């Protein structure tokens, strides 16, 4: 997601600088100057240390937006965002190496067991929603919708070369080019759970942890197909065609903010999470303040980088839960 990440960050930083300049010009008094000079408060100036974060590349843009803004207020706290993938992030988290793990799927039973063995207690917070987007080449004028069964026929390996005509006899007798997130990705895990159901993904698929590779693959091949997070589709929508998915009610639905939030875009809508080490919340003030800041701003940041925010009351309830963990 590199190109999207940098674009989102550039836009956000420019907005923040403009906002800071406006505040400085409008304040004019000693109080306004003091706020700018001291970074907001004595408490902010006193807070320092690091917050160790790793995990999902899907959640990465939200985390990086949060860290950028958090650093504006708490200049001496470092909160870099690692991108080991959801599985890699949980591996580090359950080993006690990180304070926060960003995830595009819930923690698995085996990961819970590792955390328990290591004596790590944690809390799950939902921060946004995403809709896995299935995309084809812009020139593809025959795929107007796909059902879950169609997706299974497409993506589950059967030992044969896959052609569009295998899915629908009226479609071209052309070999399909598949592009998928890598197996360490939470996006792959979710697709595996909902579509593959632990069956072998088509062996001809190109797997990559870099969403740019998937986009380039589809845009350069008229018979390409891929899937990835909604935010990345939005960033590249001028060069891709998104495919409506037939939901549980039998209606073909495109991923949009409205259909993802309402649940109409099923079964490919999913929640996005952060998992927080409870001991870090209690022992490291910077971690508590970071998570508090995250939940206070997650909705706005999620929308800014292309995901779907939760209802405000959901964030409010989680903030109360967080306060009880301190």
From TrEMBL:
Annotated keywords: Cell membrane, Lipoprotein, Membrane, Palmitate, Phosphate transport, Signal, Transport
Entry's localization field: Cell membrane
SUPFAM superfamilies: Periplasmic binding protein-like II
Domain PBP stretches: 42-295
InterPro entries reported in the protein's UniProt record: PBP_domain, Phos-bd, Phosphate_ABC_transporter
Pfam families: PBP_like_2
GO molecular function annotation: phosphate ion binding
GO cellular component: plasma membrane
GO BP terms in the entry: phosphate ion transport
Topological relation to the membrane, as annotated: Lipid-anchor
Gene3D superfamilies noted in UniProt: Periplasmic binding protein-like II
Signal sequence coordinates: 1-20
Keyword field contains Transport: yes
Family, per entry: Belongs to the PstS family.
Known partners and oligomeric status: The complex is composed of two ATP-binding proteins (PstB), two transmembrane proteins (PstC and PstA) and a solute-binding protein (PstS).
Entry-linked NCBIfam families: ptsS_2 (TIGR02136)
Chain's role: Involved in the system for phosphate transport across the cytoplasmic membrane. Part of the ABC transporter complex PstSACB involved in phosphate import.
Stated name of the protein: Phosphate-binding protein
Species for this entry: Metabacillus arenae
Lineage start: Bacteria, Bacillati, Bacillota, Bacilli, Bacillales
């Amino acid at each position: 997601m590199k190109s999207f990440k940098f674009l989102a960050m550039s836009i956000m930083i420019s907005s923040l600088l403009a906002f800071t300049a406006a505040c400085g010009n409008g304040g004019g008094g000693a109080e306004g100057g003091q706020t700018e000079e001291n970074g907001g408060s004595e408490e902010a100036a006193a807070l320092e240390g690091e917050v160790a974060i790793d995990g999902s590349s899907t959640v990465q843009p939200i985390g990086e937006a949060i860290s950028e803004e958090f650093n504006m207020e708490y200049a001496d706290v470092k909160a870099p965002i690692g991108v080991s993938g959801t599985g890699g992030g949980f591996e580090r988290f359950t080993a006690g190496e990180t304070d926060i793990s960003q995830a595009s799927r819930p923690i698995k039973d085996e990961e819970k067991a590792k955390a328990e063995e290591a004596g790590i207690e944690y809390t799950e917070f939902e921060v946004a929603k995403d809709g896995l987007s299935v995309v084809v080449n812009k020139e593809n004028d025959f795929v107007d919708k796909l059902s879950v069964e169609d997706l299974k026929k497409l993506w589950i390996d059967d030992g044969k070369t896959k052609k569009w005509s295998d899915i629908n006899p009226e479609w071209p007798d052309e070999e399909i080019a598949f592009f998928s997130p890598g197996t360490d990705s939470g996006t792959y895990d979710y697709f595996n759970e909902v579509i593959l159901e632990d069956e072998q993904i088509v062996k001809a698929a190109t797997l990559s942890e870099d969403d740019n590779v998937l986009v380039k693959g589809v845009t350069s091949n008229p018979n390409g197909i891929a899937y990835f997070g909604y935010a990345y589709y939005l960033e590249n929508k001028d060069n891709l065609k998104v495919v409506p998915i037939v939901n549980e009610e039998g209606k073909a639905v495109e991923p949009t903010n409205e259909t993802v939030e309402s649940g109409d875009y099923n079964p490919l809508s999913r929640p996005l999470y952060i998992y927080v080490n409870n001991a870090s919340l209690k022992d490291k003030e910077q971690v508590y303040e970071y998570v508090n800041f995250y939940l206070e701003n997650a909705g706005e940041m999620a929308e800014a980088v292309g995901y779907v925010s939760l209802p405000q009351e959901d964030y409010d309830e989680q903030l109360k839960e967080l306060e009880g963990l301190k």
